[in-house]
Specification:
Number of domains: 2
Radius of gyration: 22 Å
Oligomer: single chain
Helix content: 25-40%
Number of helices: 9
Distance between the termini: 80 Å
Order of helices and strands: HEHHEHEEEHEHEHEHEEHEE
CATH class of the largest domain: Alpha Beta
Strand order of the largest sheet: 2-1-3-4-5-11
Structural class: alpha/beta
Strand content: 15-25%
């Protein structure tokens, strides 16, 4: 009969529905599988994910509950607890290690993951725009007078800061492009020697880093930050330097909950072969670790 929905009626219905949701005080789960659960939110980036998610959930009448599951809780037991509490949506923060979840039926829940560290379940993801942030950091350092900008990071399969650095390097003359220093997680002495060789061979006038240990390694090599070598980091919250990228983690948490509520209301559950990735861009922060003046360090 040519019926077309009324936008005004739809808006009114949504307002009524939102009011009802607030009155229901629903619950969302934040699943923490870290071996030491306290270490997850010990990292400021991840704690800000949680804070932003909790604030957004509260706005729409939900409560965010953290479940510490790294103590050997069986997947089936966790699932029964979530269902008993009426939880339909889960947030999966970043993890350093995969957890065997055989027996847990992900199809019972709407799922949003933070970042790319968890390979399973495959599904919708909210993350910092690491490629953009890598480009942003390089460009902002160039604006502040640096020309031989080195990049150091801990090698892994899911960070893309190095891709942004490589992309941005194409904008500068070839003789100002330096090879990336890839460090090994947890191997401090090996990394210190690798950093020393890299400094000697490439003579950077500044360092852009996604590895929180780089400032410490420089100190052990006798290089003062910023007097000898200025440093910027991909996370001013956790990178142990105050110049670099604010990844806007609170916004990442907020957006994750907005997307999760959309899935819950659409009854969209389980892993997805076709999934969405929402990237939140970072912003540059000036700090004392990267002044305009510079002095090269040769360790």
């Amino acid at each position: 009969m040519g019926y077309r929905p009324s936008s005004a009626a739809s808006a009114l219905a949504q307002m009524r529905h939102t009011t009802q949701v607030r009155a229901q005080h629903g619950a969302i789960a934040w699943l923490n599988f870290w071996t030491d659960p306290a270490m997850l939110r010990h990292l400021d980036e991840f704690d800000q994910y949680y804070q932003g998610a909790a604030e957004a959930a509260e706005k729409f009448g939900f409560r965010l509950y953290e479940f510490s599951c790294g103590n050997g809780m069986r997947p089936q037991r966790l699932q029964s607890i979530l269902k008993a509490r009426g939880i339909d949506g889960v947030l999966l923060p970043p993890h350093r290690e995969a957890r065997n979840m055989d027996g847990f039926d992900w199809n019972e829940f709407s799922i949003i993951k933070f970042g790319h560290s968890l390979q399973t379940p495959v599904g919708h993801t909210v993350s910092s725009d690491q490629l953009f942030n890598g480009m942003l950091g390089f460009r902002e350092m160039r604006k502040r007078g640096y020309r031989r900008i080195g990049f150091a990071m801990t090698a892994n399969d899911y960070w893309l800061f190095d891709a942004g650095y490589i992309k941005a390097q194409l904008e500068v003359p070839p003789d100002e492009r330096l090879p990336i220093l890839y460090l090994e997680d947890g191997k401090l002495e090996q990394n210190k020697q690798a950093l020393k060789r890299w400094l000697d061979e490439n003579q950077p006038d500044s360092i852009f880093s996604s590895s929180a240990e780089v400032p410490q390694l420089l100190s052990e090599l006798g290089c003062r930050v910023p007097a000898d070598i200025p440093v910027a980091v991909t996370s001013v919250l956790d990178g142990h330097a105050d110049a670099g990228i604010n990844q806007n983690p609170r916004e990442i948490g907020r957006v994750a909950v907005l997307q999760l509520l959309t899935l819950i209301h659409d009854n969209d559950r389980g892993p997805k072969e076709l999934y969405r990735e929402i990237l939140v861009k970072g912003s540059w922060v000036d700090g004392a670790s990267l002044p305009y003046a510079r002095k090269r360090c040769s360790a």
